[in-house]
Here is the input.
Amino acid sequence: MTFYKFAVGVVLALAMVTVLGFSALVFSSRDFQYGVAQVSPTTNGLISFARLDAAEAQITEIETESAGPRGELLEIEQQIANLDTQVQNAESAANEARATMVGAIAEIETRAQLQTAESAAADMSAQGLSQRVNALAGRGGLAPTDQQAVASLRTQVGQLAQQEEALDDRGAERSALVTRQRLVGGQVAEANRRVFALQQSVVPDYESYTRIRGEAYALRNLSPLGVSAYLAEGHPALLSTMLVLLMGALGALLYLFPAYLNRAAPVTMAEIVVRLIFGMCAALAFYVLANAAIAGFSIASNVQQATTSASLNPFTVSLVGIIAGVMSEDIAKWIQDRGRGIFQQGGAQASAPAPAADSGAFGGGVNPHGGPGAP
Here is the structure.
């Protein structure tokens, strides 16, 4: 291996590392914008990292100030939940005891042939049951077993009355807790409104703020010197164009490396430079042509398609650039043939070619590349 070939190899390696580094930074920024646009379309993939930092600092301050009311609100909610559970259990036990007493009272009334008014029978409160038990106790001629049952029922009715009083006390306690909950909840809601307003200043769809904030900080923390975060604040159209150019250069390098290793004719420094520039140009031309074709189909079919830069998938954009860079010569020839066909369609039909005035040096023809015609 000659020194010149070794130097060419070093230049190719350095060019590949440089292109890969810049491509990674631009691709990560463009992919971040694409993800933000998918999560929150109203942002068009753009957020301000400075505004995000300012909003996050104010949100942290608000959350610190409202930490006390938030904790108190959580405690009150837990107390209300526990109280509801206790009340539910107490009511269930009281209803079960009430049903048992009602059945026992009804049996004694039947044996005593005591006619009970329908409204009194329907009253299952402790007071109503106490009246029925007292009526049975004041009636003479009850069997000894019924008298013992009435005495037991009196005790049970007293216990039921105590349970109802306890339920009333718990109801009053719950009402006080609910009143306090509303007061503290108003303070927390006001803090939440301020937080939502700050989040909306960064991301209009503030429901996606937490996710976008996490991805933004991850992008900035992992990129060298925060370069990707800086690029992510640029317009999606510019990043897409830069990505196409870099991928075109990458495609050109993918062509040059096998040529350097396997081709008989050596790769020169000039070829590296020219091929890189030519690959970038071919990638940009093919990218513009592809977007123009998509826009033309959209107009012809009267279907409005999303053709904004933020909606372009960075993987698709990269694929277009790489293919155009690898096949830059074929792409250029294909574009040239398509363009010649478009511009010659109408001209060939509008007028017949005029006879050549002089067929000596140029053979009556014109070379489309600007040189002399074939003899």
